[in-house]
Write a structure and sequence with these properties.
The structure is a single chain. About 0% of the residues lie in helices and about 55% in strands. By secondary structure, it is an all-beta fold. A hairpin with a 4-residue loop joins strand 3 and strand 4. The mean pLDDT is about 95.
Length: about 90
Amino acid sequence: NVMVIPVAFHLGKPYPNPFNPVTTITYDVPFDCEIALSVYDLRGRLIEELMSDYIEAGYYAIQWNAQTEASGVYFIRLVTPKMAITQKMLLMK
């Protein structure tokens, strides 16, 4: 049984986007490390920390339910030991 490990950090585009109210976010981690995945609003305020933990290398997906949030632009940010990656999302209710 062979486990495929990503070669680089990657934050996929949220799907669906625009969304109402749930979107799926994918991310790849090439080695075991501490990462944080958070959602920010257009003003840069932290809305929700989806995860912050030491994780193993691999491919991951997480869902964000924005049912209690207002329509608008949000940013998903993946912070790794080597870089930070951001993607834009649009919540349309």
